[in-house]
Amino acid sequence: MARITKAKWEENFANYNAIILEIFLNEGWDHVTYDRLSKETGLRKSTLQGYYPSNNDFEVAIKGKIFPIIASHLKFDSKDVLIDSWKAAMQDTQFRMVMRMFVMHAYKKGAEGSGRKGILGLGQIISDKLPDDNALEVIRLLFGLTVTELMGIDEEALS
C-alpha cells in the first residue's frame, strides 16, 4: 500500500469527518458505521480503521460542532421563550438528530458519555441567561420534552 503524506492524511481525515457529520445530522448517529462510511468514500473498512481505529472514534468528527447547532435554535429571553424555541427546534432534522444522540448516549454511557459536558454547558448558559430559574429544572423539562417528542407522545396519544 502506498504511503501518503501527513498533509494528505489530514486532508482525507477532514473530508471523512465532514461525511460523518453529514450522515449524523441528516440520518442519525446510528447510521454512522464503517459500512456506511465505506459506501460513501469507496474505501475498505481496513483503510478507514487507519483513521478511526474503533467506531467510538467517529465521535471526533462531531466534536465542537454539536453545541453551535443547538445554540443556534434557542432563545433565552425567558423560560417560556426557551421552551417554545426548543419545541420549534425539535422539528428541525439536525436538532432532532442531535437530541436523539444525547438520549441514546445518556442511556448507553450515562455519566461517562461525551454528552454530559454539553448538558452541563447548556445548564451554565441557562444559569447565566435565566438567573431567576432553576437550570436543572429547566434542563429536566427540556429533555422530558425531547423524549416525549422522539417517542411521538402528545396530547392526542394520552387521550
Low-confidence stretches: none
State the distance separating the first and last CA atoms: 63 Å
What number of structural domains do the residues give? 2
The DSSP helix count reads: 9
Summary, kept brief:
The protein has 159 residues and is mainly α.
What do you see in this structure?
It contains 9 helices and no strands. It is mainly α. It has 2 domains: 56 residues; 93 residues, no CATH class. Helix 1 packs across helix 6 and helix 5 packs parallel to helix 8. The longest helix has 22 residues. It is elongated. The chain starts with 5 loop residues before the first helix and ends with a helix.
Task: Outline the secondary-structure elements.
Elements: H1 6-27, H2 34-41, H3 45-48, H4 66-73, H5 79-89, H6 93-109, H7 115-129, H8 135-150, H9 155-158
Helix pairs in contact: 1-6, 5-8, 6-8, 7-8
Q: What descriptors fit this protein?
A:
159 residues, mainly alpha, 2 domains, single chain, Homeodomain-like_sf, TetR/AcrR family transcriptional regulator, elongated
